[in-house]
Amino acid sequence: MNRFKKAAAIGVTAFAVFASTPAMATDMWSATDETDAWSYGTNEQVAVRDRSADGDEAYAEYYYGVDAFRREVRNTTGGGTVKYGPSLTNSVNKLRACDEEDFVPDACAGWSYR
Asked: Which one, of 103, 50, 94, lies nearest residue 71 by Cα?
């Protein structure tokens, strides 16, 4: 039993170190049928891609740092294009992709968390 406890302690410690590395905690991605949104690397910038040519905007909603205000990056340039938001001073901690819809509520994916 003593060997089992020691092996378990080593495994838990290794997982904690591995899970706390920046590469494990930084990539975020969210998608709907027509929009992709992501924040890679240090999570200090958001991007949104419009995958449809329907004439409606694609956008990403996000929160960063300890900020309590929802922010957006809107892609108004059309299908197949990517729009990058501003470089931020803090990490993005919540992100989701949305499709603007006419005459009905916008279609948004679930939130992706850091």
From this structure: 94
Which candidate, 46, 62, 59, 54, places its Cα nearest to that of 95? 62
Q: What is the pTM of this model?
A: 0.74
CATH of the structural domain 27-113, one choice from 2.60.120, 1.10.3470, 1.50.10, 2.60.40: 2.60.40
| Alpha helices (H) along the chain | 2-19, 22-25
d(CA 31, CA 14): 32
Q: Say how far apart CA 74 and CA 19 lie, in whole Å.
A: 32
Q: Which residues lie below 8 Å from residue 64, measured CB to CB, with a gap of 6+?
A: 43, 44, 71, 88, 90, 91, 92, 93
Strands (E) in the chain, as ranges, are 28-31, 35-39, 47-50, 58-64, 71-75, 82-84, 92-99, 107-108, 112-113
Query: Residue 9: pLDDT above 60?
Result: no
